Amino acid sequence: MIRYASGIFLILAILFSSCESNFNLGGGPVYDNAANLAIDSAKIAEYLKTADYDSLYRIHDSRGVVVIIQEEGTGSRPSSGNTVHANYTGMLLDGTVFDTNLEAVAKEHDIFVEDRDYRISSFPLLAGNQGGPIPGFTIGFTRMRSGSKGVIIIPSPYGYQDQEMDRIPANSVLVFEVDFLGFD
Question: Which of 7, 11, 25, 107 suits 63 as a labelling partner, its CA being 20 to 30 A distant?
Answer without folding.
Answer: 25
